[in-house]
Design goal:
about 400 residues; 5-stranded mixed β-sheet; binds zinc ion
Length: about 400
Amino acid sequence: MLQKATRRQSKDHNKGLVLRTVYQAGWISRADVARATTLARPTVSTAVAELIDQGLVTESGLGPSVGGKPPILLRVEDDSRYMIGVDLAESEFRGALVNLRGAIRRRLSLPIHELDGEAALSVVHRLISELVQASDRPIVGIGIGTPGLMDSRRGVVRNAVNLNWRDLPLGDMLETRHRLPVYIANDSQVASLAELTFGNGQNIANLIMVKVGRGIGAGIVLDRRPFYGDDSGAGEIGHIVVESGGRLCRCGNRGCLETLASTRSLVQRAQSMWEDTRPSALRNLVASPDDITTGVLVQAVEAGDEAVRAMVAEAGGYLGQVITPLVAGLNIHHIVIAGSMARFGKALIQPIQEHVNSHSLRTLAENTHVEASQLGQDIVILGAAALLLSQELQLS
Ligand SMILES: [Zn+2]
């Protein structure tokens, strides 16, 4: 019995290894798979036959001949499976069917208005059901990025303030209802996985991803593994107090980073400054302060509005205050900013970089680069898919 189980395990292990090798190579012959994995040729052939049977791998074209018959090349069929990636963002729940290379094949978003508790949970179920129905391929599983404190190992949302979820066993609930494997992590942590798997981070070991939107959080990657911390709360930087006695934050404290550098705080500040604003790019864009959104502020900066640019730079300075100790404590070269604040590009990035440069040891700061993520607003969906790719298929 035991022997049988062991044989089965090593067979699965070999198959996984072969699949990962083909996936990473793009195109590769059976002989090169054997060379790369050091598995015996017949073992590779058996694994490949099974993967072809499952539709995961296809034979596709011929490689260059090294004397003799040109070898048949294998590749992963990128659309043979879909993954469901879900972003429980603050204003709407967004989900998508994602192929094995991170291409989005179908997307769906459902407004949540001010729903929370059970009502918000039923929106998650609806979103997933509709995506399952829309898929004409087998589904690998469901990956979820959610704001708030998570126990990722158990799939429990410990505390999501805006959704009023406390100790909610979301993973178990979704698995029971949809009969698919479910993986959940905090949205910033998930965003860091997207950058490693589908973004510019494919060849780096360590990364700090700072997601700045209505909330602020960081995802820390060490040796290509997400670092969750003792309470799964690593990277909860949004509630570090940077202005003692400052504005009241939704966490109950005053002067948190979120009250100074989130999109919500920026929009509120622009609205409160409205009366004093002289003719400006911002005034040309909207008729009333109620119409100010992050998108409008991005346009204002692009149109050369100095007052708005200064506000964005100030937010960058506050972010720098919190990012600098991370750089000193961890000595990580790559700092990536994502979330809707990243849309300000250089206007936000440069002040952060300057703060890091001027407040840390020069030798460390020299090698530290702050940049905006190129993955845009799909970053959490893609990260949730990356979670499945690594946990369910061992592909990354
Ligand atoms: Zn706070």
